[in-house]
Amino acid sequence: LAILEAVACGVPVVATETDGAKQLLGINGHLVPIEDAVALARTIITVLDDEKLRENSAAAMLERASSMFDVERMITETEKVYEDVVGSR
Questions:
Q1: Model pTM?
Q2: Alpha-carbon span 56 to 16, nearest angstrom
Q3: Tens-digit pLDDT profile for residues 8-31
């Protein structure tokens, strides 16, 4: 949830290339290979040095997260899970 919370606060995110991070951030996130400290440091420096990049990526990630975790969508998907479970009995 840390990535989602950062996105909701408008903070640009630098994360490792895990499935969850890839799904949440999409192409607008700053993903680095797992266990690559040099790539992590370089990416953080790039994001810190480029105000326009920070603003654009933060805005794009917020829009993506908002659409993925829209309340109505989450309710519909949760109801579908319950229906699938009940229907399989």
A1: 0.71
A2: 20
A3: 888 889 999 999 898 888 777 899
